[in-house]
Write a structure and sequence with these properties.
Number of strands: 26
Oligomer: single chain
CATH class of the largest domain: Mainly Beta
Number of domains: 4
Distance between the termini: 82 Å
CATH architecture of the largest domain: Beta Barrel
Radius of gyration: 42 Å
CATH topology of the largest domain: OB fold (Dihydrolipoamide Acetyltransferase, E2P)
Largest sheet: 7 strands, antiparallel
Number of helices: 6
Structural class: alpha+beta
Length: about 425
Protein backbone atom coordinates (compact mmCIF):
# COMPACT_ATOMS: atom_id res chain seq x y z
CA UNK A 1 0.00 0.00 0.00
CA UNK A 2 2.83 2.42 0.88
CA UNK A 3 4.57 1.49 -2.36
CA UNK A 4 1.54 2.48 -4.44
CA UNK A 5 1.31 5.80 -2.56
CA UNK A 6 5.03 6.56 -3.25
CA UNK A 7 4.59 5.81 -6.95
CA UNK A 8 1.56 8.09 -7.19
CA UNK A 9 3.37 11.00 -5.50
CA UNK A 10 6.37 10.55 -7.80
CA UNK A 11 4.19 10.65 -10.90
CA UNK A 12 2.51 13.87 -9.75
CA UNK A 13 5.88 15.50 -9.06
CA UNK A 14 7.11 14.41 -12.47
CA UNK A 15 4.15 15.96 -14.24
CA UNK A 16 4.65 19.25 -12.35
CA UNK A 17 8.33 19.31 -13.21
CA UNK A 18 7.59 18.65 -16.87
CA UNK A 19 5.18 21.53 -17.01
CA UNK A 20 7.63 23.89 -15.24
CA UNK A 21 10.79 23.04 -17.17
CA UNK A 22 9.51 21.55 -20.40
CA UNK A 23 11.29 18.78 -22.29
CA UNK A 24 14.71 20.47 -22.04
CA UNK A 25 14.65 20.77 -18.28
CA UNK A 26 15.25 24.54 -18.40
CA UNK A 27 12.79 27.26 -17.39
CA UNK A 28 10.82 28.64 -20.30
CA UNK A 29 12.01 32.23 -19.81
CA UNK A 30 12.34 32.90 -23.55
CA UNK A 31 8.82 31.77 -24.47
CA UNK A 32 6.24 34.42 -25.48
CA UNK A 33 3.85 35.79 -22.90
CA UNK A 34 0.49 34.04 -23.00
CA UNK A 35 -2.44 36.48 -22.89
CA UNK A 36 -4.65 36.00 -19.87
CA UNK A 37 -7.59 36.68 -22.18
CA UNK A 38 -6.84 33.63 -24.31
CA UNK A 39 -7.92 35.56 -27.36
CA UNK A 40 -6.84 35.53 -30.97
CA UNK A 41 -7.61 37.14 -34.29
CA UNK A 42 -8.22 34.61 -37.01
CA UNK A 43 -6.33 35.12 -40.23
CA UNK A 44 -3.88 37.70 -38.79
CA UNK A 45 -0.18 37.56 -39.65
CA UNK A 46 1.75 35.75 -36.91
CA UNK A 47 5.05 37.23 -35.68
CA UNK A 48 6.80 38.21 -32.47
CA UNK A 49 7.52 41.81 -31.55
CA UNK A 50 8.81 43.97 -28.71
CA UNK A 51 6.54 46.17 -26.62
CA UNK A 52 9.16 48.96 -26.70
CA UNK A 53 10.36 48.55 -30.29
CA UNK A 54 7.46 47.68 -32.54
CA UNK A 55 9.66 47.72 -35.65
CA UNK A 56 11.17 44.44 -34.44
CA UNK A 57 9.36 41.54 -36.12
CA UNK A 58 10.73 38.01 -35.78
CA UNK A 59 9.24 34.73 -36.86
CA UNK A 60 10.14 32.91 -33.63
CA UNK A 61 10.10 33.71 -29.90
CA UNK A 62 13.13 35.16 -28.17
CA UNK A 63 14.41 38.44 -26.83
CA UNK A 64 14.50 41.90 -28.40
CA UNK A 65 17.89 42.60 -29.95
CA UNK A 66 17.59 46.28 -28.95
CA UNK A 67 16.62 46.09 -25.28
CA UNK A 68 16.59 42.41 -24.32
CA UNK A 69 12.87 42.28 -23.46
CA UNK A 70 10.96 39.12 -24.24
CA UNK A 71 9.14 39.20 -27.55
CA UNK A 72 5.37 38.94 -27.58
CA UNK A 73 3.25 37.19 -30.19
CA UNK A 74 1.34 39.96 -31.96
CA UNK A 75 -1.99 38.17 -32.13
CA UNK A 76 -2.28 37.66 -28.38
CA UNK A 77 -2.25 41.30 -27.25
CA UNK A 78 -4.51 43.78 -29.09
CA UNK A 79 -2.34 46.77 -28.22
CA UNK A 80 0.39 45.25 -30.41
CA UNK A 81 -1.87 45.43 -33.45
CA UNK A 82 -1.41 48.76 -35.30
CA UNK A 83 -5.08 48.72 -36.29
CA UNK A 84 -6.44 48.26 -32.76
CA UNK A 85 -6.70 50.50 -29.72
CA UNK A 86 -6.99 48.93 -26.30
CA UNK A 87 -7.23 50.52 -22.87
CA UNK A 88 -7.21 48.95 -19.45
CA UNK A 89 -10.47 48.63 -17.55
CA UNK A 90 -9.48 51.56 -15.35
CA UNK A 91 -8.67 53.76 -18.32
CA UNK A 92 -11.96 52.85 -20.00
CA UNK A 93 -13.80 53.77 -16.81
CA UNK A 94 -12.02 57.11 -16.49
CA UNK A 95 -12.69 57.92 -20.17
CA UNK A 96 -16.36 56.95 -19.71
CA UNK A 97 -16.25 54.73 -22.79
CA UNK A 98 -19.66 53.28 -23.60
CA UNK A 99 -20.72 51.13 -26.52
CA UNK A 100 -23.93 50.33 -28.37
CA UNK A 101 -24.87 48.12 -31.28
CA UNK A 102 -25.71 49.71 -34.62
CA UNK A 103 -29.44 49.55 -35.31
CA UNK A 104 -30.97 48.82 -38.74
CA UNK A 105 -33.12 51.60 -40.16
CA UNK A 106 -36.26 49.47 -40.03
CA UNK A 107 -36.00 49.35 -36.22
CA UNK A 108 -34.50 52.81 -35.67
CA UNK A 109 -36.12 55.54 -33.65
CA UNK A 110 -34.72 59.02 -33.16
CA UNK A 111 -35.88 61.52 -30.57
CA UNK A 112 -36.40 64.78 -32.46
CA UNK A 113 -36.74 67.84 -30.23
CA UNK A 114 -38.67 70.74 -31.75
CA UNK A 115 -40.03 74.10 -30.65
CA UNK A 116 -43.31 75.62 -31.71
CA UNK A 117 -46.42 77.46 -30.62
CA UNK A 118 -50.15 77.04 -30.24
CA UNK A 119 -52.33 78.55 -32.98
CA UNK A 120 -56.08 78.40 -33.59
CA UNK A 121 -57.40 75.75 -35.93
CA UNK A 122 -57.93 77.65 -39.18
CA UNK A 123 -61.03 75.62 -39.96
CA UNK A 124 -62.55 76.92 -36.69
CA UNK A 125 -61.74 80.62 -37.13
CA UNK A 126 -64.66 82.84 -38.23
CA UNK A 127 -65.28 86.48 -39.03
CA UNK A 128 -68.33 87.94 -37.37
CA UNK A 129 -69.63 90.60 -39.74
CA UNK A 130 -72.49 93.05 -39.72
CA UNK A 131 -74.49 92.82 -42.92
CA UNK A 132 -76.69 95.70 -41.77
CA UNK A 133 -75.33 99.11 -42.81
CA UNK A 134 -75.52 101.89 -40.26
CA UNK A 135 -73.81 103.22 -37.12
CA UNK A 136 -72.78 101.22 -34.06
CA UNK A 137 -74.60 102.60 -31.04
CA UNK A 138 -73.48 99.98 -28.54
CA UNK A 139 -71.04 97.01 -28.46
CA UNK A 140 -72.12 94.29 -26.05
CA UNK A 141 -68.84 92.43 -26.64
CA UNK A 142 -66.25 95.16 -26.18
CA UNK A 143 -62.94 93.32 -25.68
CA UNK A 144 -60.90 90.45 -27.05
CA UNK A 145 -60.90 87.19 -25.09
CA UNK A 146 -64.63 87.23 -24.34
CA UNK A 147 -66.60 84.10 -25.14
CA UNK A 148 -69.77 84.48 -27.19
CA UNK A 149 -72.47 81.99 -28.11
CA UNK A 150 -74.35 81.69 -31.34
CA UNK A 151 -77.55 83.80 -31.22
CA UNK A 152 -76.23 86.10 -28.50
CA UNK A 153 -76.72 89.86 -29.13
CA UNK A 154 -73.36 91.43 -29.83
CA UNK A 155 -74.09 95.00 -30.97
CA UNK A 156 -76.81 97.62 -31.32
CA UNK A 157 -76.92 99.36 -34.73
CA UNK A 158 -78.92 102.30 -35.99
CA UNK A 159 -79.60 101.95 -39.72
CA UNK A 160 -81.43 104.51 -41.78
CA UNK A 161 -81.64 101.93 -44.56
CA UNK A 162 -83.58 99.66 -42.19
CA UNK A 163 -85.90 102.55 -41.23
CA UNK A 164 -86.61 103.15 -44.92
CA UNK A 165 -87.50 99.51 -45.42
CA UNK A 166 -89.80 99.59 -42.39
CA UNK A 167 -91.60 102.64 -43.73
CA UNK A 168 -91.93 101.14 -47.18
CA UNK A 169 -93.20 97.88 -45.77
CA UNK A 170 -95.65 99.59 -43.40
CA UNK A 171 -97.15 102.21 -45.67
CA UNK A 172 -97.11 100.40 -49.01
CA UNK A 173 -98.80 97.11 -48.27
CA UNK A 174 -100.69 97.26 -51.53
CA UNK A 175 -97.58 97.47 -53.72
CA UNK A 176 -96.22 94.01 -54.28
CA UNK A 177 -92.87 95.15 -55.73
CA UNK A 178 -92.12 97.34 -52.73
CA UNK A 179 -92.99 94.54 -50.33
CA UNK A 180 -90.79 92.13 -52.28
CA UNK A 181 -87.90 94.64 -52.27
CA UNK A 182 -88.30 95.12 -48.52
CA UNK A 183 -88.17 91.38 -47.91
CA UNK A 184 -85.05 91.03 -50.10
CA UNK A 185 -83.29 93.81 -48.22
CA UNK A 186 -84.05 92.19 -44.87
CA UNK A 187 -82.74 88.87 -46.17
CA UNK A 188 -79.50 90.46 -47.46
CA UNK A 189 -78.95 92.07 -44.05
CA UNK A 190 -79.39 88.69 -42.38
CA UNK A 191 -82.57 89.88 -40.66
CA UNK A 192 -85.89 88.09 -40.41
CA UNK A 193 -89.19 89.71 -41.27
CA UNK A 194 -90.12 89.25 -37.61
CA UNK A 195 -87.77 92.13 -36.77
CA UNK A 196 -90.51 94.46 -37.96
CA UNK A 197 -92.57 93.57 -34.90
CA UNK A 198 -89.95 95.30 -32.73
CA UNK A 199 -90.92 98.68 -34.13
CA UNK A 200 -93.93 100.70 -33.03
CA UNK A 201 -94.97 102.33 -36.26
CA UNK A 202 -97.38 104.64 -34.35
CA UNK A 203 -94.56 105.91 -32.11
CA UNK A 204 -90.88 106.68 -32.62
CA UNK A 205 -89.64 103.79 -34.73
CA UNK A 206 -86.36 105.50 -35.62
CA UNK A 207 -84.25 103.54 -33.14
CA UNK A 208 -81.33 101.02 -33.25
CA UNK A 209 -81.77 97.29 -33.63
CA UNK A 210 -79.70 94.44 -32.16
CA UNK A 211 -77.61 92.10 -34.30
CA UNK A 212 -76.72 88.60 -33.15
CA UNK A 213 -73.69 86.29 -33.22
CA UNK A 214 -73.50 83.80 -36.05
CA UNK A 215 -70.88 81.57 -34.31
CA UNK A 216 -69.82 80.40 -30.88
CA UNK A 217 -66.23 80.93 -29.78
CA UNK A 218 -63.62 83.18 -28.23
CA UNK A 219 -63.08 86.68 -29.59
CA UNK A 220 -59.50 86.87 -30.85
CA UNK A 221 -59.68 90.44 -32.15
CA UNK A 222 -62.18 93.31 -31.88
CA UNK A 223 -62.03 95.28 -35.10
CA UNK A 224 -64.58 98.09 -34.53
CA UNK A 225 -65.50 100.62 -31.86
CA UNK A 226 -68.73 102.26 -30.79
CA UNK A 227 -69.76 105.02 -33.18
CA UNK A 228 -68.11 103.37 -36.18
CA UNK A 229 -69.97 103.30 -39.48
CA UNK A 230 -70.85 99.95 -40.99
CA UNK A 231 -70.41 99.51 -44.73
CA UNK A 232 -73.35 99.12 -47.04
CA UNK A 233 -73.39 95.62 -48.46
CA UNK A 234 -74.35 96.98 -51.86
CA UNK A 235 -71.38 99.37 -51.85
CA UNK A 236 -68.66 96.92 -50.76
CA UNK A 237 -67.67 94.20 -48.31
CA UNK A 238 -69.59 93.99 -45.01
CA UNK A 239 -67.78 95.30 -41.96
CA UNK A 240 -66.02 92.72 -39.78
CA UNK A 241 -66.83 93.22 -36.12
CA UNK A 242 -64.84 90.42 -34.50
CA UNK A 243 -62.52 87.54 -35.32
CA UNK A 244 -63.88 84.53 -33.45
CA UNK A 245 -62.26 81.13 -32.94
CA UNK A 246 -63.52 77.87 -31.53
CA UNK A 247 -60.59 76.85 -29.29
CA UNK A 248 -61.99 73.46 -28.25
CA UNK A 249 -59.46 72.08 -30.76
CA UNK A 250 -56.22 73.87 -31.60
CA UNK A 251 -53.12 73.36 -33.69
CA UNK A 252 -49.57 73.11 -32.43
CA UNK A 253 -47.23 74.22 -35.20
CA UNK A 254 -43.62 73.01 -34.78
CA UNK A 255 -40.58 74.27 -36.67
CA UNK A 256 -38.49 71.46 -38.14
CA UNK A 257 -35.25 71.84 -40.07
CA UNK A 258 -34.66 70.26 -43.43
CA UNK A 259 -32.35 67.62 -41.96
CA UNK A 260 -35.21 66.37 -39.76
CA UNK A 261 -37.60 65.70 -42.65
CA UNK A 262 -36.35 62.17 -43.51
CA UNK A 263 -37.39 61.10 -40.01
CA UNK A 264 -40.80 62.75 -39.74
CA UNK A 265 -43.94 61.21 -41.21
CA UNK A 266 -47.63 61.83 -40.77
CA UNK A 267 -49.14 59.69 -38.04
CA UNK A 268 -46.07 59.67 -35.76
CA UNK A 269 -46.85 60.21 -32.06
CA UNK A 270 -45.66 63.42 -30.43
CA UNK A 271 -45.49 64.81 -26.91
CA UNK A 272 -45.12 68.42 -25.84
CA UNK A 273 -45.05 70.59 -22.74
CA UNK A 274 -45.67 74.26 -21.98
CA UNK A 275 -44.24 76.57 -19.35
CA UNK A 276 -47.77 77.47 -18.28
CA UNK A 277 -48.47 73.89 -17.13
CA UNK A 278 -45.24 72.38 -15.74
CA UNK A 279 -45.42 68.62 -15.37
CA UNK A 280 -48.34 68.35 -17.77
CA UNK A 281 -47.54 66.31 -20.88
CA UNK A 282 -49.82 66.74 -23.88
CA UNK A 283 -50.01 64.02 -26.55
CA UNK A 284 -50.96 64.24 -30.21
CA UNK A 285 -49.95 62.91 -33.62
CA UNK A 286 -48.40 64.55 -36.65
CA UNK A 287 -51.24 65.20 -39.10
CA UNK A 288 -49.66 67.62 -41.57
CA UNK A 289 -46.24 68.47 -42.98
CA UNK A 290 -45.98 71.76 -44.86
CA UNK A 291 -45.16 71.38 -48.57
CA UNK A 292 -42.74 74.33 -48.62
CA UNK A 293 -39.88 75.81 -46.58
CA UNK A 294 -40.20 79.14 -44.86
CA UNK A 295 -37.81 81.41 -46.81
CA UNK A 296 -36.82 83.40 -43.70
CA UNK A 297 -36.44 80.80 -40.93
CA UNK A 298 -35.59 77.93 -43.35
CA UNK A 299 -37.88 75.62 -41.39
CA UNK A 300 -40.82 73.41 -42.30
CA UNK A 301 -44.08 73.61 -40.35
CA UNK A 302 -45.10 70.35 -38.65
CA UNK A 303 -48.70 70.45 -37.42
CA UNK A 304 -50.34 68.61 -34.53
CA UNK A 305 -54.11 68.57 -34.06
CA UNK A 306 -54.79 68.77 -30.30
CA UNK A 307 -57.97 68.38 -28.25
CA UNK A 308 -58.35 71.46 -26.01
CA UNK A 309 -61.74 71.00 -24.37
CA UNK A 310 -60.25 71.92 -20.98
CA UNK A 311 -59.01 75.22 -22.42
CA UNK A 312 -55.46 74.80 -21.10
CA UNK A 313 -53.79 75.76 -24.38
CA UNK A 314 -53.97 79.40 -25.41
CA UNK A 315 -53.06 80.85 -28.81
CA UNK A 316 -49.38 81.84 -29.16
CA UNK A 317 -48.22 79.72 -26.22
CA UNK A 318 -44.70 78.35 -26.74
CA UNK A 319 -44.26 74.58 -26.57
CA UNK A 320 -41.33 72.14 -26.42
CA UNK A 321 -42.15 69.00 -28.36
CA UNK A 322 -40.59 65.60 -28.88
CA UNK A 323 -41.31 63.38 -31.87
CA UNK A 324 -40.08 59.80 -31.94
CA UNK A 325 -38.95 59.94 -35.56
CA UNK A 326 -38.71 56.93 -37.81
CA UNK A 327 -36.51 57.09 -40.93
CA UNK A 328 -38.20 56.85 -44.27
CA UNK A 329 -37.34 53.88 -46.44
CA UNK A 330 -33.62 53.97 -47.26
CA UNK A 331 -32.22 53.53 -50.76
CA UNK A 332 -30.59 50.11 -50.43
CA UNK A 333 -32.16 48.81 -47.25
CA UNK A 334 -28.72 48.06 -45.70
CA UNK A 335 -28.31 51.34 -43.86
CA UNK A 336 -27.95 51.52 -40.08
CA UNK A 337 -28.50 54.26 -37.51
CA UNK A 338 -26.04 55.33 -34.81
CA UNK A 339 -25.96 58.20 -32.27
CA UNK A 340 -24.22 61.38 -33.35
CA UNK A 341 -21.85 61.09 -30.39
CA UNK A 342 -20.29 58.01 -32.01
CA UNK A 343 -19.02 59.89 -35.07
CA UNK A 344 -15.69 61.70 -35.19
CA UNK A 345 -15.72 64.16 -38.06
CA UNK A 346 -12.56 65.73 -39.49
CA UNK A 347 -14.14 67.62 -42.37
CA UNK A 348 -12.60 65.22 -44.87
CA UNK A 349 -13.90 61.98 -43.45
CA UNK A 350 -16.11 60.56 -40.72
CA UNK A 351 -14.93 57.68 -38.56
CA UNK A 352 -16.29 55.54 -35.75
CA UNK A 353 -14.63 53.12 -33.36
CA UNK A 354 -15.90 49.56 -33.65
CA UNK A 355 -15.20 46.88 -31.08
CA UNK A 356 -13.36 43.87 -32.50
CA UNK A 357 -15.27 40.72 -31.41
CA UNK A 358 -12.17 38.54 -31.93
CA UNK A 359 -10.79 39.73 -28.58
CA UNK A 360 -12.14 39.13 -25.13
CA UNK A 361 -10.65 42.38 -23.82
CA UNK A 362 -12.08 45.64 -25.18
CA UNK A 363 -10.24 46.27 -28.45
CA UNK A 364 -11.45 48.90 -30.90
CA UNK A 365 -10.80 49.52 -34.56
CA UNK A 366 -11.04 52.92 -36.28
CA UNK A 367 -13.28 52.65 -39.33
CA UNK A 368 -14.30 55.22 -41.91
CA UNK A 369 -18.05 55.52 -42.63
CA UNK A 370 -20.22 57.36 -45.13
CA UNK A 371 -22.96 59.49 -43.59
CA UNK A 372 -26.31 60.32 -45.09
CA UNK A 373 -26.83 63.91 -46.15
CA UNK A 374 -29.84 64.11 -43.83
CA UNK A 375 -29.08 63.54 -40.13
CA UNK A 376 -31.98 63.72 -37.70
CA UNK A 377 -32.14 64.64 -34.08
CA UNK A 378 -29.50 62.76 -32.15
CA UNK A 379 -28.65 60.17 -34.83
CA UNK A 380 -26.87 59.71 -38.13
CA UNK A 381 -27.91 57.43 -40.95
CA UNK A 382 -24.84 55.41 -42.06
CA UNK A 383 -24.89 54.58 -45.76
CA UNK A 384 -21.62 52.59 -45.89
CA UNK A 385 -19.02 51.24 -43.47
CA UNK A 386 -21.17 49.59 -40.79
CA UNK A 387 -23.48 46.64 -40.50
CA UNK A 388 -26.39 46.14 -38.16
CA UNK A 389 -25.35 44.53 -34.89
CA UNK A 390 -21.76 45.77 -34.85
CA UNK A 391 -20.77 47.26 -31.50
CA UNK A 392 -19.62 50.87 -31.71
CA UNK A 393 -18.32 53.39 -29.20
CA UNK A 394 -20.98 56.03 -28.52
CA UNK A 395 -19.16 57.85 -25.73
CA UNK A 396 -15.44 58.30 -25.18
CA UNK A 397 -14.46 57.85 -28.84
CA UNK A 398 -12.28 60.96 -28.67
CA UNK A 399 -10.26 59.46 -25.80
CA UNK A 400 -9.68 56.29 -27.83
CA UNK A 401 -8.63 58.37 -30.83
CA UNK A 402 -6.18 60.35 -28.69
CA UNK A 403 -4.62 57.09 -27.50
CA UNK A 404 -4.39 55.90 -31.11
CA UNK A 405 -2.66 59.10 -32.22
CA UNK A 406 -0.18 58.97 -29.33
CA UNK A 407 0.58 55.33 -30.17
CA UNK A 408 1.01 56.03 -33.88
CA UNK A 409 -1.94 53.80 -34.75
CA UNK A 410 -4.84 54.25 -37.12
CA UNK A 411 -6.90 57.31 -36.09
CA UNK A 412 -9.35 59.81 -37.48
CA UNK A 413 -6.52 62.12 -38.58
CA UNK A 414 -4.54 59.37 -40.24
CA UNK A 415 -6.12 56.11 -41.30
CA UNK A 416 -2.65 54.67 -42.01
CA UNK A 417 -0.85 53.68 -38.80
CA UNK A 418 2.50 55.45 -38.21
CA UNK A 419 5.58 54.30 -36.22
CA UNK A 420 5.71 55.57 -32.65
CA UNK A 421 7.70 58.75 -32.18
CA UNK A 422 9.97 57.07 -29.65
CA UNK A 423 10.92 54.15 -31.91
CA UNK A 424 13.86 53.92 -34.29
CA UNK A 425 11.56 54.01 -37.31
CA UNK A 426 9.65 56.92 -35.83
CA UNK A 427 12.79 59.00 -35.39
CA UNK A 428 13.79 58.16 -38.96
CA UNK A 429 10.43 59.35 -40.31
CA UNK A 430 10.70 62.52 -38.21
CA UNK A 431 14.16 63.30 -39.58
CA UNK A 432 13.04 62.73 -43.18
CA UNK A 433 10.06 65.07 -42.73
CA UNK A 434 12.22 67.81 -41.23
CA UNK A 435 15.15 67.80 -43.64
Amino acid sequence: MKRILYITVALILGVIAGIRFGNTGHPQDDSPLVSFTNCSAEGAEQFFTCGMHQQVRLGQPGRCPACGMRLVENRLLPHQNPDLVSLSNGELLLANVRTQKAVPTIAARSKILLNGRVVPDESRVFEQVSYLPGRIEKLYVDKAGMFIRKGQPIASVYSKELVSVIEAFAFNQNTESIIRAARNNLASWNLDVSVLRQFDLKGDYRRPVDIYADFSGTVLRKKVSEGAALANLHMGQPTVLYEVADLSRVWVVLDAYEEDLPWIKEGLPAEFTTAAHPGKCFRAVVNFIAPSVDPISRTIAIRLDVDNKEGLLKPDMFVNACIMGSPKEAESGNEVVIPKTAVLWTGLRSVVYVRDPAYDVPAFRCREVVLSDSPAGEHYLIMEGLEAGEEIVINGALALDAEAQLSGKRSMMNLKPQPMAGSFAGRKVYKEKNK
